[in-house]
UniProtKB/TrEMBL annotation:
Record's keyword annotation contains Metal-binding: no
Record family assignment: Belongs to the class I fructose-bisphosphate aldolase family.
Name assigned to this protein: Fructose-bisphosphate aldolase
Pathway: Carbohydrate degradation; glycolysis; D-glyceraldehyde 3-phosphate and glycerone phosphate from D-glucose: step 4/4
Entries under Gene3D superfamilies matching the protein: Aldolase class I
Catalysed reactions listed for this entry: beta-D-fructose 1,6-bisphosphate = D-glyceraldehyde 3-phosphate + dihydroxyacetone phosphate
Signal sequence annotation: none
Keywords linked to the UniProt accession: Glycolysis, Lyase
Molecular function per GO: fructose-bisphosphate aldolase activity
GO BP term (any one): glycolytic process
CDD domains on file: FBP_aldolase_I_a
Length: 334
């Protein structure tokens, strides 16, 4: 696939007023979410839940793509339609999470590095055949005493860049996600400093590995106060510092940036995105790739009655997509 074709997919992922729904929870992560609402984590319940999300009527109005987990990419609706086929029909680009999760970084207690490069070339080939057009790899950066270390930042950037190069070789748009974790009592300025260093390191590594930015999407964490910081930054501060940080560290030829929600409330995730899009003009579209901030309310509704609540749960999914789609244009009204 040519760079022009990759660029076309990347641009479609961040089309005006649209964003991405992340439903790529690994089986152990979705089990935690299901446990929280009293649902058994069986393969059929996982399939039915993802079917509920993906068959939300008119979802494609505000959703450009969905990130799936390996199991989900291979599943079908109860009527036998492959999820990927259904998505393409509704204008939703199939994506796939390909990392194997964070593991402790030897020699650096409290820090992690994401694994999953071994055999990735073969897996990507299969994912492309199954219909995936973009992929996601999440690196985790923790803030704490003497953390993050330069070693952890470099190791994660290197993995992200190797992954991204393999994706482009396979004709798949890499979404690179270096998540600076919100946990901790650090202030927003610390988060800014760490996020800028992490992004600079990532783009240097992408350059080293010959990754074409025109066919790459950044999934970023916002610059926020640590969850336990006594002084919580306002919506406007989060927006201003996040945009300033991105402008300082992200090249303008990147087709777009989407955010993770990272544990923010549904409303905060929407309000922050909206406020950022009111600080334009910006070098790139800023949109969303939320997991929890798209699904939490719907999962609660769906769980009360696996069959009866599908319609109500889907209305909630659509409402979250619409609010975030409007926020991607700076047009959301509380
Ligand atoms: P959250 O929006 O719940 O942080 O999930 C997004 C995601 O894909 C994390 O990798």
């Amino acid at each position: 696939m040519s760079i022009d074709q990759l660029a076309e997919i990347a641009q479609a992922m961040v089309a005006a007023g649209k964003g991405i729904i992340a439903i790529d929870e690994s089986n152990s992560t979705i089990k935690k979410r299901f446990d929280g609402v009293g649902i058994d984590c069986t393969e059929e319940n996982r399939r039915a839940y993802r079917e509920m999300l993906l068959t939300t009527p008119n979802l494609g109005e505000y959703i450009s793509g969905a990130i799936l987990f390996d199991e989900t990419l291979r599943q079908k609706t109860k009527d036998g339609v492959p999820f990927t086929e259904l998505m393409m029909k509704n204008g939703i680009i199939p994506g796939i999470k390909v990392d194997k999760g964070p593991q402790p970084l030897a020699g650096f207690p409290g820090e992690v590095v994401t694994e999953g490069l071994d055999g990735l070339r073969e897996r990507l080939k299969e994912y492309a055949q199954l219909g995936a057009r973009f992929a996601k790899w999440r690196a985790v950066i923790n803030i704490g005493e003497d953390m993050p270390s330069g070693t952890a930042i470099e190791a994660n950037s290197h993995m992200l860049a190797r992954y991204a190069a393999l994706c482009q070789e396979a004709g798949i748009v890499p979404m690179v996600e270096p998540e600076v974790i919100m946990d901790g009592d650090h202030d927003i300025d610390t988060c800014y400093e760490v996020t800028e260093i992490v992004l600079r390191s990532l783009f240097a590594a992408l350059y080293d590995q010959n990754v074409m930015l025109e066919g790459t999407i950044l999934k970023a964490s916002m610059v926020v106060s640590g969850k336990d910081c006594p002084e919580q930054a306002s919506v406007d501060e989060v927006a201003e510092l996040t945009v300033r940080c991105l402008k300082a560290a992200v090249p303008a030829n990147l087709p777009g940036i989407v955010f993770l929600s990272g544990g923010q409330s549904d409303e905060a995730a929407t309000a922050h995105l909206n406020a950022m899009n009111n600080l334009g003009p910006l070098p790139w579209p800023l949109s969303f790739s939320y997991g929890r901030a798209m699904q939490t309310a719907a999962l609660k509704l769906w769980s009360k009655d696996l069959v009866g609540n599908v319609g109500v749960a889907q209305q909630t999914v659509f409402a979250r997509a619409k609010d975030n789609g409007l926020a991607a244009l700076g047009e959301w009204v509380k």
